[in-house]
Amino acid sequence: MQVIFRVDGSEEIGSGHVVRCITLADQLLSKGAKVRFITRAFTGGMQDFIESHGFTCSRLDGDINSIELDAFETYLVIRENYDSRIDWLIVDHYDLDYSWESFLRPVVKKIMVIDDLANRKHDCDLLLDQNYYKNYHNRYDGLVQKSTKLCLGTKFALLNPNFFSVKKKLRRRDGVVRRILVFFGSSDIYNQTELTLNAIEMLGRSNLYVDVVVGNSNPQKERIRQFCLLRPHYFYHCQIPYMADLIAEADLSIGAGGTTTWERCFLGLPSIISVVAENQVNVSRDVSNFGAAICLGWAKNNSVLIYENAIRSLIDDKDKLLAMERASKLIANVQEAALVEEMYKQKLI
């Protein structure tokens, strides 16, 4: 089976799209699929990251000047590398829509879309939205064909297999905060990491251990590293493969409301989250309303004092933390490889 992913990542876009596509690609690879990625060579792009996971990556030059041009360039890559129609084209991209997908129909058998905005029409055979929203079952009414198979909700969340292994031996938290995890995505364009670290310092609690995670595309990573080096209870981690272990060890997390939301919830980690992108607004709000996190709104409006007050209020509220842990595990009803299993069940592969 031949599968192509069309996905981008960069300092501005972040790494979430690419990371979840690699997770799915690994699952398909284990079923015997042959996988290729197509991505644009943006500054801070994810091409090397994709190739480091063992996948072939075809690179498109420049920005997306038009949907039509991107579709044509993707079409050329497929025609140049495959003698017949590929089995699956999987697209995870907010700038691409029905017209792009329709253009590629002649060279693919099936199209899958990964989306969480529900703001445009799609021409696809299967659509994945792995997030939790209030009334999420109706989000794509009128945006896809009646024949489109919808895989909606956290059951289908694309988590690295490490998370399922870690959950089997997950410790029971007692509501006492001894270790804090800070992670605002690979780029952290609003520099929330440094604000949060300064907020934790202002707590004046020398008994707290802090794990600080940044991506290679974080422009402040060296300054953050130096901050941690000067403090014995702070531990710096850059572009790591062991996020599941850090989440399991933590008692509280402060971070962005992106794809890491489901990683934290799956392992029951209470979280303080800030919105760093438009696609996180509804998810962060609904997860907060469910009781699994506290949402501070848009990151660009936050301050050291806002973070300090939020952290302090949770550290002093054991019952609140335990309730958030229970809500997190309840909302993240993730089943390993559920998407691939559903694809086979529906005879789409």
* Main sheet: strands, sense, barrel: 7 strands, parallel
CATH superfamily of the largest domain: Glycogen Phosphorylase B
- Structural class, from secondary structure content? alpha/beta
Counted by DSSP, the helix tally is 13
The average pLDDT value, as a whole number, equals 94
The CATH level-2 architecture of the largest domain is identified as 3-Layer(aba) Sandwich
Q: Write down the domain tally.
A: 2
**What is the C-level CATH assignment of the largest domain?**
Alpha Beta
Tell me the helix content. 25-40%
The percentage of residues in β strands lies in: 15-25%
Order of helices and strands: EHEHEHEHEEEHEHEHEHEHEHEHHH
Computed over alpha carbons, the radius of gyration is 20 Å
Describe the structure.
- By secondary structure, this protein is of the alpha/beta class.
- It has two domains: 2-158 and 335-345, 3-Layer(aba) Sandwich (Rossmann fold), CATH 3.40.50.11190; 162-331, Rossmann fold, CATH 3.40.50.2000.
- The protein contains 13 helices and 13 strands.
- The protein has helices spanning 16-30, 47-52, 67-81, 98-104, 161-168, 192-203, 221-229, 243-249, 260-266, 281-290, 304-315, 318-331, 338-345, and strands at 2-7, 34-40, 56-60, 86-92, 108-114, 126-129, 149-152, 179-183, 209-214, 234-238, 252-256, 271-275, 293-298.
- The protein has a seven-stranded parallel beta sheet with strand order 3-2-1-4-5-6-7, with helices on both faces. Strands 10-9-8-11-12-13 form a six-stranded parallel beta sheet, sandwiched between helices.
- The longest helix has 15 residues, at 16-30.
- It is globular and about 65 Å long.
- The chain starts with a strand and ends with a helix.
- The model has no long low-confidence stretch (mean pLDDT 94).
